[in-house]
Design goal:
By secondary structure, this protein is α+β, with helices and mostly antiparallel strands. Among the domains are: about 70 residues, Immunoglobulins (Immunoglobulin-like, Sandwich); about 70 residues, Sandwich (Immunoglobulin-like), CATH 2.60.40; about 170 residues, paralog of FGE (formylglycine-generating enzyme) (Alpha-Beta Complex). Helix content is about 30%, strand content about 25%. The protein has a five-stranded mixed beta sheet. A hairpin with a 7-residue loop joins strand 21 and strand 22.
């Protein structure tokens, strides 16, 4: 027999188990779903918070930069709250991070360049200071040497300038000093150039008769253009001395006509149109102590002269005049064809030698009731026989004078030194003469090449040769500065008060040079 109840009871537990499994699976799925949603919400909140923090940080960094003038770089960006790399940055923050890194690198390079520039500038300033100190030391050394030389000259003993001399052993030095002129005395036609030579390092002293005081020789070349007697001696560093010696030079001028002697070739008077020109050497003006004067001519001719109030003319036969008092000479010349030079006058003012000289070597004192200063005897570089330096600006001229312890002359000082106390129109007189200075030529000449172009106080070539800068602005235009005296082709426009030429101070011109002045108070004593 079948039992209907037994079959139904066997299938029910299995169905319940299936239903329970399905419900458990649905519950687990729901739990997992809600857990995933919760985790996603948490992650989204964290990212939002990080983004807000980065923005606040950037705003704070920008504000800091505006307030303090500094930039916020990666190190400042990542060190505020967390260490770098703990949390990923957004694309925006990463871009900002990279931009700050580049700015940091650029600013670091700029700072390094600025430091290098400052270091280079400091080195340049140090080098310039060192050069200035060396230059000042050289100038001081030169001035000290000049003081020693002047002291030795005034005392007649002692040592002159000694350069690059090694210590000497006087116990083993038995050589006696010797000095001799390389152009011996005797008769010379035209000027003789004399240089004193020695056999060992020593100090040489010289004088011209009838002088009694000795002068220290500083390697200058003597130009013997008049008959005179040169005395010389030497003292070495061990005190050994030579006996004073004398050498007489009988100088005959190129155009001299002897009273008796060989006949000159016949003159071609039909073709000889040159007028004779004669001048005394040295020229007139102020001189300290006795001087020897002779006449120079430009061609064979007979020279006549007289002094003071004399009315009778005397022929000159190469005699040297000793002038030791204030005197006025009148002279003229006649050549063999009868061409004659008009009588000329030259006044000499002789003052006693100064015990102390207010100017340095190569300068002449200018003294009036209103002014006292020193001026260079020749155009720069202030050496007889040298070529004047031209093509210089006003600033270059000022620098050259300052380096020598001098200054550029003013226009008033320049004119006073040129015109003298009598306010002459030209350094040689009141009327223009084309022969006296280098004013009718094609180029400049050596300094002192025209002995007659001497101003009253002793400065040469203040008319012609080269124009000279002054430190005085032009009255027509304050941006221009006056140059004085004309140049080699100026003709009559080369007087002591000629100020028609003026230029910008930075300009340079071939006919323009300069000479320097100096105050008595700062001059070498």
């Amino acid at each position: 027999m079948n039992e209907p109840g037994s079959g139904n009871n066997g299938s029910s537990p299995k169905a319940y188990r299936i239903i329970a499994g399905i419900l458990a699976l649905l519950l687990a799925t729901a739990v997992i779903f809600f857990a995933v949603k919760l985790e996603q919400k948490k992650i989204a909140g964290s990212l939002k918070k990080n983004r807000q923090t980065a923005q606040e940080r950037a705003a704070a960094g920008g504000e800091l930069g505006l307030k303090e003038g500094n930039k916020i770089y990666s190190s400042q960006w990542t060190s505020k709250n967390t260490s770098p790399g703990t949390e990923p940055l957004s694309a925006r923050d990463s871009a900002a991070f990279i931009a700050y890194e580049k700015a940091y690198a650029a600013d670091s390079e700029k700072s390094a360049n600025e430091k290098n520039s400052a270091k280079i500038a400091g080195s340049k300033r140090a080098a310039d200071s060192a050069k200035a100190a060396i230059k000042a030391a050289r100038i001081a050394k030169t001035m000290d040497s000049l003081k020693k030389a002047n002291a030795a000259a005034s005392s007649g003993s002692g040592e002159g300038p000694a350069r690059n001399q090694v210590p000497i052993d006087c116990r083993n030095d038995t050589v006696t000093p010797e000095v001799y002129p390389d152009s011996a005395g005797g008769e010379h036609i035209g000027p003789a150039h004399v240089f004193l030579r020695t056999n060992k390092p020593c100090t040489v002293f010289w004088r011209f008769d009838p002088d009694t005081s000795w002068h220290v020789w500083n390697a200058d070349t003597f130009v013997m253009d008049c008959t005179a007697t040169l005395g010389y001696k030497a003292v070495d560093r061990c005190g050994r001395a030579t006996e004073p010696r004398r050498e007489r030079y009988d100088i005959k001028p190129f155009g001299f006509v002897p009273a008796a002697g060989p006949e000159l070739p016949p003159a071609d008077c039909a073709n000889d149109t040159m007028m004779p020109w004669v001048y005394p050497d040295p020229a007139g003006g102020l001189h300290y102590g006795p001087i020897h004067i002779c006449f120079q001519t430009n061609k064979p001719c007979t020279v006549y002269w007289r002094t003071g109030a004399d009315t009778a003319w005397r022929a000159w036969h190469s005699d040297t005049f000793l002038v030791d008092t204030t005197t006025t000479f009148t002279y003229k010349a006649v050549d063999r064809c009868g061409h004659a030079m008009e009588p000329q006058e030259e006044s000499y003012v002789i003052r006693p030698r100064r015990s102390t000289f207010p100017c340095g070597t190569g300068m002449e004192p200018v003294e009036t009731d209103a002014k006292q200063f020193c001026i260079d005897r020749y155009e720069w570089p202030d050496r007889k026989g040298a070529t004047p330096q031209t093509y210089v600006s006003l600033y270059q001229a000022m620098d050259s004078c300052a380096a020598a312890g001098k200054r550029l002359c003013t226009a008033d000082e320049w004119s006073l030194a040129c015109a003298g106390p009598d306010s002459l129109s030209y350094p040689y007189g009141r009327r223009y003469s084309r022969h006296a200075c280098v004013t009718h030529d094609t180029t400049m000449r050596h300094s002192g090449s025209k002995p007659e172009c001497r101003a009253f106080f002793g400065a040469y070539d203040m008319s012609g040769n080269v124009a000279e800068w002054t430190s005085t602005p032009s009255k027509r235009n304050a941006h221009f500065y006056n140059v004085m005296g004309g140049f080699w082709a100026s003709g009559p426009a080369s007087g002591c008060y000629e100020a028609r030429y003026s230029y910008y101070p930075q300009n340079r011109h071939n006919p323009v040079g300069f000479r320097c002045c100096k105050d008595f108070a700062s001059s070498v004593k």
